[in-house]
Design brief:
Helix content: 10-25%
Radius of gyration: 15 Å
Mean pLDDT: 89
CATH class: Alpha Beta
Shape: globular
Strand content: 25-35%
Number of helices: 3
CATH topology: Nucleoside Triphosphate Pyrophosphohydrolase
Largest sheet: 5 strands, mixed
Structural class: alpha+beta
């Protein structure tokens, strides 16, 4: 069996949320499949997920928040103007994202959190994507990201810096 050529695969349409909370810090969560990543690069990420067929990206980002962190108590306060793409690392092509995509094409939103920490519930999904969460400084994002997502987090840290003031 020959390896899959990533160039032959499409990007999966996706949305991402930079959720601003207390003091202008942002919500980050540790991937449940990387439980030993405490403080390590790559184990932490922002909420994100696929866009359903015929779904509006603005609606998708609120749906994804509810699914991944247990609440959609947020309002959209900004949107990165461009779709951002990333390619999976070579070893993940053919296995991650159902093996059908080379990476993701993402629309990113800045959101203001309207709830309290108690509203964030990672335990509502029987197969949670995350097992821990915290509030982080926006500038920390690139250092927390898995290497193939780091360029996107660099862009987001610049694009949404105006919302980090608190």
């Amino acid at each position: 069996m020959s390896p899959i050529d990533p160039e032959t695969l499409p990007y999966r349409p996706n949305v991402g949320a930079v959720l601003f909370g207390p003091g202008g810090r942002v919500f980050v969560a540790r991937r449940a499949d990387l439980p030993n990543a405490e403080g390590a690069a790559g184990g932490w990420q922002l909420p994100q997920g696929g866009i359903d067929a015929d779904e509006d990206p603005r609606g998708a980002v609120l749906r994804e928040l509810a699914e991944e962190i247990g609440t959609d108590r947020a309002e959209i306060i900004g949107e990165h103007p461009d779709w951002l793409t990333y390619d999976l690392s070579r070893e993940l092509v053919g296995t991650a994202l159902g093996g059908r995509y080379r990476g993701q094409k993402q629309r990113w939103f800045a959101l203001r959190f309207l709830g309290t920490d108690a509203d964030i519930r990672l335990d509502l999904d029987p197969h949670p994507e995350f097992d821990a969460w915290r509030w982080a400084e926006l500038a920390e994002l690139p250092g927390l990201a898995i290497p193939f997502k780091r360029p996107i987090y660099d862009v987001l840290a610049l694009s949404f810096a105006r919302f980090a003031g608190g």
